[in-house]
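Re: that chain you flagged

S.,

Sorry for the slow reply, it's been a week of failed gels. I finally had a moment to sit down with the sequence you sent. For the record, here it is as I used it:
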Amino acid sequence: MKKNLNRRGFVKTTLLGSIGLGLMGNRNYTSGRTGSSGRRIGIIGLDTSHSTEFTKAFNDIAAAPELDGYKVVAAYPRGSDDIKSSYERIPGYTDEVRKLGVEIVSSIEELLSKVDVVLLETNDGRLHLQQALPVFKSGKRMFIDKPMTASLTDAITIFEAARHYNVPVFSSSSLRYEKVTQEIVRGKIGKVLGADTFSPATIEKTHPDLFWYGIHGIESLFTLMGTGCRSVSRTYTEDTDSVVGVWNDNRIGTFRGTRSGVYGIGGIAFGEKANLTLGGTLGYNELLIKIVEFFNTGIVPVKAEETLEIFGFMQAAQESRLKGGASVNIESVILKAKRKVKMSF
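Prediction finished late last night. Pasting the structure tokens below so you have them in one place:
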């Protein structure tokens, strides 16, 4: 790998322009929202910039009214134990959110006694299942940030646990809510006949290749194409991934993951009426609004079935790499993972 890219730092530095969250300049955060009962947010994991940026947004008195009075009031800092780019940031991010008026607690159990809803932000997807279970048991609604898990099996288990405890949960990349992407979803170019997306796909040895960062561009692809991907084939080199998905109706969608050159995100959708390039104003604002709507209603904006198909796509791509680029059926990959799930909640 020729470049080392902070996984969430890239989204932060690339996407924050003009997002209207009041994240720049001098703001009075601690005297902003009150975090009244029912709107108190707890954060698990302070090893990612999302923890600080989301806190700034929710706790800023000038933040968008759509955030509906929610405030981050407590945080449990535990993150990755062995991903250096994550654990080295915990002390600094802990100090930063403390200055924003957030109480730092020593356990998830203590956190849950002080909050109404949860943002699971730990950068290490391997920890998410064990961190999510006590939240489900408490009955509190939760958003799980990317990567949702470090395995398809864990993702299936999380959704099964959510059903078991009857607690809604969802996960999403902020790229799902990119302006042009959402215009296409609403029908601007008619039926999407195909799409190509690209994003960085830096690799972290503790996670399957695309789970760590490629997930962002892949979520964009599924947002445009919808579910129903049948098979995946992947060409891998040190610098680049090219992943081709064939949908059940024979549409083709591709993802290009980059590990060299200029790091960027984008793509193009091919439609009945027009072809349209992605790239409107990006940021966290629309995702945070969706999270608030979810906290208020319990209605998930991204269904479990779609998230699991995205994970199936990435797992199939992993297996395709091991098979020299051979096509891999997604349904068979998901069924194989389901057989490994242990319902020990």
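What I noticed first: The chain has two domains: 7-173, 175-284+311-334.

Talk soon,
D.
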